[in-house]
Amino acid sequence: LARTVAVANEKGGVGKTATVVNLGAALSMEGQKVLVVDMDPQGNTTSGFGFDSGHDRISTYNLIMNPKEASAKEAIINTAWPGLYLIPSHVDLAGAEIELIKEMGRENKLKKALSGLRAEYDVILLDTPPSLSLLTVNVFSFATEVLVPCQTQPYAFAALDNLFDTISTIKENINPDITITGIVATFFDKRTHVSQMIMEKLNTDKRCSNLVYKTVIRSNTTIAASSDVGQPVVFFRKNSYGSMDYIQLAKEFLGRNGSE
Amino acid sequence: LARTVAVANEKGGVGKTATVVNLGAALSMEGQKVLVVDMDPQGNTTSGFGFDSGHDRISTYNLIMNPKEASAKEAIINTAWPGLYLIPSHVDLAGAEIELIKEMGRENKLKKALSGLRAEYDVILLDTPPSLSLLTVNVFSFATEVLVPCQTQPYAFAALDNLFDTISTIKENINPDITITGIVATFFDKRTHVSQMIMEKLNTDKRCSNLVYKTVIRSNTTIAASSDVGQPVVFFRKNSYGSMDYIQLAKEFLGRNGSE
Ligand SMILES: Nc1ncnc2c1ncn2[C@@H]1O[C@H](COP(=O)(O)OP(=O)(O)OP(=O)(O)O)[C@@H](O)[C@H]1O
Ligand SMILES: Nc1ncnc2c1ncn2[C@@H]1O[C@H](COP(=O)(O)OP(=O)(O)OP(=O)(O)O)[C@@H](O)[C@H]1O
Ligand SMILES: [Mg+2]
Ligand SMILES: [Mg+2]
Fold first, then answer.
1. Helix H or strand E segment including A3
2. What's the gap in Å between B109 CA and the centre of ligand 3?
3. If you measure from the C-alpha of residue A183 to the centroid of ligand 4, how many angstroms do you get, rounded to a whole number?
4. Distance from the alpha carbon of residue B16 to the mean position of ligand 4, in angstroms
5. What is the pLDDT of residues A18-77, one digit of tens each?
């Protein structure tokens, strides 16, 4: 059965999308069959693989709002790279939040839609918006692992409190199988004091020190440049820091195989 | 009457909070009486001024959820700096989104709570979460200006489409006075191609070229360092790039005086 991993952090701009796109791609290079699911209305993961989230095609929006009309299998598109598949987002997803509120079983829509897929993939990675909204809760209801990108800056570190609380609430009320299985430091810059200080906090804080990946994602503009051409950095420029770090992260991710 | 300015961009991590905290502080240095309102459940603006958003005090949460029990005047706290006031956020604000949905007049809760304050300040700056949620719509219902921080990276530039659409919908249905009056480029790094490319796009794109501020906020780690000690960068280290850029932005902001 596939490992199902929600990549989440309420703090914005910490590298959630960069991690889903590039860890997903790096895992496919390791021979894993990977499905990426874009549950962010912004659709950055969708455009990070070179697709347009405004395009009229079956998306995560249809899976949660019109499950009778669209199946997950039909929503899956092939990316340009072998072993790497995508269920795209759509701009309509922004309206789904309000539409979902009044629905029965609103937290489990995504879980129902994706339930048959776990047998067909090695890893399913899900991108989330920067909020603890119903869209994110839908992802938490389906996934058994949470991977938390944490920018090495004060606001992003402070956001961990809320995320730990949210995950324990989800675990008690919606999904007993969910666990935070990893924290990955992002935007690390060894030249700046702030970055080193937050790295130190991550490595010493009792709540998270055992979760922190040894692999650190360094600050690297090639990651942003690769998003502009709709390619994961590991395919865009293999010898960049970004590529090396995500390839390293994929190896460490496989070594941890999902149990705590 | 005060200029009321929503600082917004659905894209996460683009410098919304940094702009509210530091532009607010720089404006107070110019002799303006400034009120900052934190409508982000993360409470980064509140901690950016040295306060704890977990602390039990009247916050934006009470103003929108229990208006009979708490008035805006009571919620205002003095910051450590003259002429600079804050209505703090509270962690409970995260739940307000779902609680608001079923309320009558849900978009206008904040507007009602803040209506009497415009006569007492020169500028009211409002921080928003990275989503086009009801909390953000409440801010758009009150403000007459929108200032958009745009990180000079592809995903942040792509987010402008959605924001322009959202503001025109708000203008038609909720608040006819709202207008995007400025876009400020943030995280600019003249050494990287991506940053220059996006800067070029901002300056040539017909929708926004007339809105872009001449002042550009450069990438500067002092801004993050200052957030760690709960001080605006203009007070934390006056001769840093961050401080110089935000002081310059304040002067240009005052020169534009809010009309298009
Ligand atoms: N390690 C890195 N070094 C430099 N730039 C990066 C890095 N990781 C991501 N970026 C860039 O920084 C910006 C923010 O990253 P990204 O969009 O992946 O964060 P996010 O958490 O998904 O944001 P959001 O909260 O809006 O969903 C993007 O422009 C991205 O290309
Ligand atoms: N010009 C800058 N140069 C370097 N770092 C910056 C700059 N502006 C902000 N930062 C830092 O980058 C991070 C993101 O900025 P900030 O939190 O202000 O963005 P935001 O848009 O408010 O994020 P969110 O979407 O989560 O509300 C913070 O750690 C902040 O201190
Ligand atoms: Mg993202
Ligand atoms: Mg913010």
1. strand A3-7
2. 29
3. 21
4. 5
5. 999 999 999 999 999 999 999 999 999 999 999 998 889 999 999 999 999 999 999 999
| Residue whose C-alpha is closest to residue B245's, from B180, B179, B190 | B190
DSSP-assigned states of every residue in chain B: --EEEEE--SSTTSSHHHHHHHHHHHHHHTT--EEEEE--TT-HHHHHTT--TTSSS--HHHHHH-TTT--HHHH-EE-SSTTEEEE---TTHHHHHHHHHTSTTGGGHHHHHHGGGGGG-SEEEEE--SS-SHHHHHHHHH-SEEEEEEESSHHHHHTHHHHHHHHHHHHHHT-TT-EEEEEEEESB-TT-HHHHHHHHHHHH-TTTTTTB-S---B--HHHHHHHHTT--HHHH-TTSHHHHHHHHHHHHHHHHTT--
Q: Which residues of A23-60 are buried (b: 16+ CB within 10 A; e: fewer)?
A: bbbbbbbeebbbbbbbbbbbbbbbbbbebebeeeebbb
Q: Closest CB to A101: pick one of B44, B98, B130.
A: B98
Q: Which of B242, B251, B188, B258 is nearest to B22 (CA)?
A: B242
| Sign of the alpha-carbon torsion through A139, A141, A146, A151 | positive
Per-residue pLDDT reduced to its tens digit, A205-236: 999 999 999 999 999 999 999 999 999 999 99
Sign of CA dihedral B18, B23, B28, B34: negative
Q: Rounded to an integer, what distance in angstroms lies between the CA atom of residue B36 and that of residue B25?
A: 10
- Specify whether the CB–CB gap between B240 and B202 falls below 8 A: no
Burial class (CB in 10 A: 0-12, 13-18, 19+), B171: middle
Indicate if ligand 1 lies below 6 Å from the C-beta of A40.
Answer: yes
Contact B153 A14 (CB under 8 A): no
Question: Who among B11, B133, B227 is closest to A42 (CB)?
Answer: B11
Name residue A142's amino acid: F
Look at A12 and B130 and tell me if their CB atoms are within 8 Å: yes
The mean pLDDT of A168-191, rounded to a whole number, is 97
Q: How far apart are CA B150 and CA B161, in angstroms?
A: 12
